[in-house]
Input
Amino acid sequence: MVEKNALNTEKINIPARIPVFPLPNIILFPHVELPLYIFEPRYRKMLADCRAGHKFMAISLLKEGWEKEQEPIPSYDVIGVGYLRAVFENPDGTSYILLRGVARAQIIRYVQWRPYRIAQIKRLPDRVENPEELAALSRRLKRLFIQRLRWMSEDPSPALQIPQKMAHPITLSHMASFIAHISPYRKQGLLETTNSNSRLKDLIHILEDEITPPGTQN
Output
């Protein structure tokens, strides 16, 4: 079965309590669509409950060294909140799902641990420090983002353009954070950065280093 819904992430309200899916190496950023495979019984139940309810779930990055920890494995408290866009059920009870990132949030406390985590959360909005500087940083990041996309493309020759709905500085920064070739823990740092100006500055340095690594020439 497939469930699809159009979203305007700027206007959508997220619930105060939400199931949390802790995962290694995965960050869910706002405006990003994330495919996942659901196979463990507890998370199959989480998915069933989510589909029957508000259709929101959050992704929380497991903390470094999680392999050595006992349950409940610690994960970060700043999370990406997603809306369940699509579900593809398999005959064996597993599912492929598509989450659309709609917000970043802070876990206040967990209200349930078993069979899966449910947390009380609060939304973490972006803070613009300097609008004029942000606009200039956005233009610079856009150029680097397009160049990075061309590197990722099988056919980099055609001119690439960013859709207008993705060109907003904050939206662009989340998309750039998602494609950046850095560790998940550094991406977590970008997710936790609520100062938009600071996040764009960090991303510009990251993409510049990817395109022209230190010690090389243009």
Observations:
- The mean pLDDT is 89.
- The first strand starts at residue 17 and ends at 23.
- Residues 131-152 form the longest helix (22 residues).
